[in-house]
Prior knowledge:
Shape: globular
Low-confidence stretches: 16-23
Mean pLDDT: 92
Amino acid sequence: MTTTALLRAFLLISQLALAVSCAQSQQQSEDFARASLEHIRVLAADSLQGRETGTPGNRMAMEYIEQEFRAAGLAPVDSGYRHAFTVDTDEATVHGANLIGLIRGTKYPDRAIVITAHYDHVGVRDGQIYNGADDNASGVAGLLAAAHWFHRHAPATTLIFAALDAEEKGLLGATALLKHPPVPLEQIRLNINLDMISRSSKKELYAAGTAHYPWLKPLLTSVARPDSLRLLFGHDTPEHGAQHDWTLASDHGVFHQHGIPFIYFGVEDHEDYHKPSDDFSKTDRVFFIDAVHFITRAIAKLDAHIAGDPVPQR
Length: 314
């Protein structure tokens, strides 16, 4: 066999190996997304009594997420995953706790992406349990699926996974996180926030934030996604009224106020939003799996971009 023929054979074998590796990676992403449906079921169970901050049900959710952080191989920050905080509001003193774990970047450990999802909900009202399956057991489930995937596919930059508390009481967990960040603030290049990603009658997943940070849009549009999932942009300007502007609607808003770029993945409000009927049984399993699979790939794309960009884009 000639040298040229040997080279062609080597290149073909390399291409086949890469294709197999990519296919296995995609399958693992889908598998973790499918498995994470169980996280929604557990976190939205009646036994957790709506996960209101400071309640026994909230603590049960905390313990479950902590267990999953450990299973995903996330490294704790400082002495452990739990980071307690206390905030005095006009209504009461709030005692909460964020759960934070990370995967160190293999190339640029001093560049960080913070992936957030709040695990609290509104608890019990008038004797009815508000289980918050979509809001926001779904976001936490997506965060856990991504954590498991990146444990097997090491990122180039540091990924910080933060399950935040007291979002429903005024983004208090996110505020506490950035008051005492796990890495210096200047190292945080991006926040990716997941809040309500498990159902949409129109099969629409929004990526809000690109109106503020336009460089993010072409990166997200380049990520492959199932034909059944519609990726839309918007809900990040006051053009159609303040109630349609999600810029400060969830934990990503605190990052934005600190000048940190964000992408907020979520769906438009549905008939069960902040109602006792937001149960696991309403989860659109196909939509959720497709959304989590896409979000995981989007994180990988953004990780690669930030690893290749020497200048922070704010």
